[in-house]
Specification:
The structure holds two protein chains of two kinds. By secondary structure, chain A is of the alpha/beta class. Helices cover 51% and strands 12% of the residues of chain A. The longest helix of chain B is centred in the middle third of the chain and has 30 residues. The radius of gyration of chain B is 40 Å and the shape is elongated. The chains are: A alpha/beta, B mainly alpha. The interface between A and B is large, with 92 and 96 residues. Chain B: It is found in: Cytoplasmic vesicle; Early endosome; Late endosome.
Chain lengths: 617, 494
């Protein structure tokens, strides 16, 4: 149970340094605006900020009041306003409206905008257009790596996914490169680099450029982390679209883990209050169940509860002295454990209730059928019924995407009828959502002689060969055939099971999906690490449409210790799921590696679908 | 500064700041010191270009970027100690001892040294090559006052400019005036992959090129094109975006982009009028029908809403009194509208806009969807007769038969969801064809009679025996089971 690490597992580097670094940088920036000031914080930055600083730190640096950046006039009476925001146009407009209102009222104050993690020229352009460029000073708070756990770093940039994979905007690639650069300055160079995906390749190249420009800094340092693996989310959409069944993933799907913590409502806490709970390795109970298949969690928790009871019961035979010892030394720990235990039991119950209600069993059955590619008609009519009964719009969309990717697109008749029914059930404006999904290659229609090719050849006629090549690139990066079935076969993603798959004693990474499917992303990582290259994977790479975007870069390993060579940093561009994290943690235990995860954000199927949805709830 | 915990609470309340809690750390001060130490020790490799950064940060200290005092400092900083300044310094130094410089080859002009690195193979203008062979072109530069070196430092090559932009530095693009220069700048930005820089260059191009030229050049530069499209979406320059799509002949995107605007229109009548303008747009054939439906639906909803609001406030209609409307029907999906109309207007003649049959016909709602929705609505009202009628068909001999296009197991589930009484449920469970499903459903929903009868029909004594424990002691069901179990008429299979 709870998979202990192998004794020879390498130690993880200490990432808490990143928190201190970010905090000190923020303090430095606040000090650049001496005197009392009010701080306006963007909602999306609050939770990350929460994890590295607190009110008294802000107060020590003369922050007077805090406000949320929202579309309301500010009531602040401070002489100095400081804005801590993501570089977004709407924030600029908001700030401009405040400043311009002040100007109209003949009021002069000092304004400072701190962009996190960096500013964009488009933002500055808006400031200029609104006539307040020069009235506000701009700074950057390069806070792009938040350690959510001992092995998990998040950039907390969920918009990365839509910006890049839908819009094709590469604005965050520099942020990623900077983050990697920071890691290599802090933890030494990475002797072995691998990557797959167009974005991965670009981020890698930009990062290398950065290192070259500022060379010498990482040279001579011993590498602490032996390998880095960059992977684009669109290399594997399938895994991200599946329902999660390991505990942490299930908690995320059910309650939404936000920035490493979750709000458990009254139905979980069995009181009238909601409770915000940090979920990480420090929660001893959680740490033991987070990677478990849900079916094991109940048994584990009840065993734990019995043990706890036994420990409490020990106090019965105690004399005064023993009792004193017990109270002073053990009771606090036991109480803590008790609290955690009851929380997670409550969470499990609540999950069970919700899942039974939505007929989870049936849903999982359909997903597995889609992954394996049988009973396609049955699955299609299951999805249809989902839509007709107006079950959650996100869920229906997710299933359709899963069907599309596993089948290389829907057959036109199905596409049309599902789309029509979807629009009738959830609203005609979802027409826009369908257009987005098609562009991102998540939900497509099988077409004889790809429509894209037609556009390509039409455009190609107009231009030179070189440019035509670029266009083909551009097209292929966005919508492409998924070839899932062939890849699945090549990489053995569907384990052949004789008899029952024992989820208590997992034998491969498929356990994170009840033994039905090995996550594609994790399988690729496993295969490449085994070979230390892409050799022999050409066909897979081709099927993934990544022939030009799979790379390896090795340097001499003489300085890397054998311990560091078993540490692997996996970078997910566009988000990773808790299921993938669990699967790789499992792989690590099997092979004596340890994985460190860097993701643009933790994601799941619902978040992916919402990012594509044009109609915001 | 040292406020107490209570102060902190009040502080939060006073700033009306919701759901923003920091974890308390007791020793944050010592941690702060510690982290400061750590940071200081890190300085050497964290700070990218040490003194340069300090100088630049001085400018953050208060004087807003772009003000006169700021630009003065920026100028001073640039001439002496910024990173580029240093490079400049280097080249100046080396210039004073130019004898040591490798002799420029004929293709590369001396002045190109001032522009920083030139990409091998990059284009050299004819005038460059011709005029720069003698000392004439650089000699006067040597005599320039120090301040004017700024002109030089602004004279970056496209690749240096792009690199500077990537670092977030202020960098004027104004000197890229020829189309060729502009495009080279763009290509450099694209090849560096930083979207922020690509957009920065595009902002400049958008301002300094006519849109026809801009569009024409972007058509063959898809990466840049995507950035421009996204940028235009973000800043809301709908007009230029539509022009761009028109130019590119991307008619569908043009139509969708126009259609998207309706989401910003709150007023239902205005929204309806806007949707009307969308009908003729070049959507795909399939989408055209959806747009038409969207318009018709909203049109209907406006009529129904006005009518029903009137009925409800008049208080004369029973259904509205018994079940007041929870929300307006405006902008709801079609299925919701159908449900609404099955709920409030079930018996209306086909001629009225609000009748379910009319909706079904207008929007070609499939039977399955219609039955599902009507069933849910009538079951919610507990109008069991209506439910019954939904599934009753008469054949030509006048016999009635129950038929459901959605499968009776679904019917049962929906009825159960709406708390239908057991007698009703039982009737429909019995209609489920598959015996296993029937048995499952009957057990799940406690339709005892169905379970018992099915077991009897299956001659499954064991299952019946097992079921006996699930019914209440001394109930009619138990009696019935006992009677069956002791019956000698049945030849049990087990």
């Amino acid at each position: 149970m709870a998979f202990p690490h192998r004794p020879d597992a390498p130690e993880l580097p200490d990432f808490s340094m990143l928190k201190r670094l970010a905090r000190d940088q923020l303090i430095y920036l606040l000090e650049q605006l001496p005197g009392k000031k009010d701080l306006f914080i963007e909602a999306d930055l609050m939770s990350p900020l929460d994890r590295i600083a607190n009110v008294s730190i802000l107060k020590q640096h003369e922050v007077d009041k805090l406000y949320k950046v929202e579309n309301k006039p500010a009531l602040s009476s401070s002489e100095q306003l400081c804005f801590l925001v993501r570089p977004r146009i709407k924030n600029m407009r908001y700030i401009a409206s405040l400043v311009n209102a002040d100007k109209l009222a003949g009021r002069t104050r000092k304004y400072k905008v701190i962009f996190s993690p960096q500013k964009f020229y488009a933002c500055e352009m808006v400031l200029e257009e609104e006539g307040i460029y020069g009235d506000v000073s701009c700074d950057e708070w390069a806070f792009s790596l938040l350690p959510l756990d001992v092995d998990l770093l998040s950039m907390e940039l969920p918009e990365f996914f839509r910006d890049y994979f839908l819009e094709g905007d590469q604005r965050w690639i520099n942020t990623v490169a900077q983050a990697l650069h920071l890691l290599s300055t802090l933890y030494g160079p990475f002797p072995n680099c691998y990557g797959i995906g167009r974005c991965a390749k670009m981020a890698y190249e930009l990062w290398r450029n950065l290192e070259e420009e500022e060379d010498g800094e990482t040279k001579g340092r011993r590498p602490e982390i032996g390998h880095i693996f960059l992977l684009d989310r669109d290399v594997d959409f399938v895994t991200a679209l599946c329902s999660q069944v390991v505990y942490e993933g299930l908690v995320d799907d059910t309650f939404r883990i936000k920035c490493g913590s979750v709000d458990f409502g009254p139905e979980v806490t069995s009181s009238d209050k909601s409770l915000k709970v940090l979920l990480n390795a420090e929660d001893k109970v959680f740490n033991e169940i987070r990677n478990e298949h849900f079916s094991n969690v109940f048994g584990f928790l009840s065993q734990k509860a019995r043990n706890l009871q036994a420990q409490y019961d020990r106090r019965r035979g105690m004399d005064i002295k023993q009792m004193k010892n017990f109270v002073s030394q053990e009771l606090k720990g036991l109480k803590q454990e008790h609290r955690l235990l009851s929380l997670h039991i409550g969470a499990c119950e609540s999950i069970m209730k919700k899942k039974t209600k939505q007929d989870f069993q049936e849903l999982i059955k359909t997903e597995h059928a889609l992954l394996e590619g049988f009973n396609i008609r049955e699955s299609t009519s299951y999805i249809e019924e989902h839509i007709d009964q107006q079950v959650s719009p996100i869920e229906s969309l997710r299933l359709m995407c899963l069907l599309s990717i596993t089948e290389n697109g829907l057959i036109p008749k199905d596409y049309r009828s599902l789309k029509t029914q979807y629009l009738q059930s959830y609203g005609p404006e979802h027409l826009l959502t369908f257009s987005n999904l098609r562009r991102a290659g998540l939900l497509t229609e099988q077409a004889p002689g790809d429509t894209l090719t037609a556009v390509e050849s039409k455009v190609s006629k107009l231009v030179t060969d070189k440019a035509a090549g670029k266009i083909t690139d551009a097209f292929s990066s966005l919508a492409k055939r998924s070839n899932f079935r062939a890849i699945s076969k090549k990489l053995n993603l569907i384990p052949r099971v004789d008899g029952e798959y024992d989820l208590k004693v997992p034998r491969d990474m498929a356990y994170v999906f009840s033994g039905a499917y090995v996550p594609l992303s994790c399988r690729i990582i496993e295969q490449v690490l085994e070979r230390r290259s892409w050799q022999g994977l050409d066909e897979v790479v081709r099927l993934l449409n990544c022939s030009d975007f799979a790379f390896t870069d090795m340097t001499k390993e003489d300085k890397a210790s054998s311990e560091s060579l078993r540490l692997i940093l996996v970078v997910f561009l566009g988000g990773c799921t808790f299921s993938e994290i669990s699967a790789l943690r499992f792989l690590g235990r099997e092979k004596g590696y340890r994985f460190i995860f860097l993701t643009t954000a933790v994601t799941n199927s619902a978040r992916l679908m919402e990012a594509m949805s044009e109609v915001k709830a | 500064m040292n406020r107490t915990k209570g102060d902190e609470e009040e502080y939060w309340n006073s700033s009306k700041f919701k759901a923003f809690t920091f974890d308390d750390e007791d020793d944050e001060l010592s941690q702060l010191k510690e982290s400061k130490r750590a940071v200081n020790s890190l300085r050497d490799f964290v700070d990218d270009d040490d003194d340069d950064d300090d100088l630049e940060r001085v400018s953050w200290s208060g004087e807003p970027v772009g003000s006169i005092s700021w630009s003065i400092k920026e100028t001073a900083g640039n001439s002496g100690s910024s990173h580029e300044g240093r490079e400049q310094l280097k080249s100046r130094n080396s210039f004073s001892s130019y004898a040591q410089l490798p002799k420029p080859t004929s293709t590369y002009s001396l002045s190109s040294f001032f522009r920083g690195r030139t990409r091998p193979g990059s284009f050299q203008s004819l005038s460059d090559a011709l005029s720069d062979t003698s000392a004439k072109s650089y000699a006067p530069e040597l005599g320039r006052p120090k301040g004017e070196y700024r002109d030089y430092s602004n004279d970056w090559s496209p690749s240096d400019t792009v690199r500077r932009l990537r670092k977030g530095k202020v960098c004027s693009l104004e000197r890229f005036r020829s189309l060729q220069d502009k495009l080279q700048l763009l290509e450099e930005a694209v090849s560096m992959h930083d979207g922020n820089v690509i957009t920065a260059v595009l902002i400049f191009l958008k301002r300094t090129l006519s849109k026809e030229i801009l569009f024409r050049e972007l058509e063959v530069r898809q990466v840049a094109l995507r950035h421009l499209i996204h940028f235009l979406k973000e800043i809301g320059d709908q007009k230029l975006l539509l022009d761009l799509f028109r130019f590119l002949d991307r008619t569908e995107e043009l139509a969708l982009s126009h259609y998207r605007e309706h989401l910003n229109i709150r007023d239902p009548d205005k929204r309806k009028e806007f949707l009307k303008t969308c009908i003729g747009l070049p959507f795909s054939a399939e989408d055209s029908a959806h747009i038409q439906d969207h318009y018709t639906l909203l049109e209907r909803q406006i009529i129904i809403e006005a009518n029903d609001r009137h009925l409800e406030s008049a208080g004369q209609t029973e259904i509205f009194r018994k079940h007041p409307r929870k929300a307006s029907i405006l902008n709801m999906p079609l299925v919701t509208t159908l449900f609404y109309s099955c709920f409030y207007h079930y018996t209306e003649a086909e001629g009225t806009f609000s009748s379910p049959i009319n909706l079904k016909k207008t929007f070609k709602i499939p039977d399955k969807q219609y039955v599902l929705t009507a069933l849910a609505a009538r079951a919610k009202l507990r109008a069991w007769n209506d439910v019954d009628a939904l599934f009753t068909t008469k054949n030509w001999l006048g016999y009635t038969k129950k038929r459901a296009p959605i499968g009776f197991h679904r019917v049962v589930e929906i009825l159960h969801k709406n708390n239908a009484p057991v007698q009703i449920l039982q009737e429909y469970v019995n209609l489920v064809e598959d015996v296993d499903t029937k048995l499952n459903l009957a057990t799940k929903f406690k339709c005892h009679d169905v379970v018992i009868d099915t077991c009897r029909d299956l001659k499954d004594r064991q299952q019946l025996l097992a079921y006996r424990s699930k019914v209440d002691k001394g109930s009619a069901e138990e009696e019935k089971i006992d009677a069956l179990l002791s019956s000698s008429q049945i030849r049990w299979k087990n």
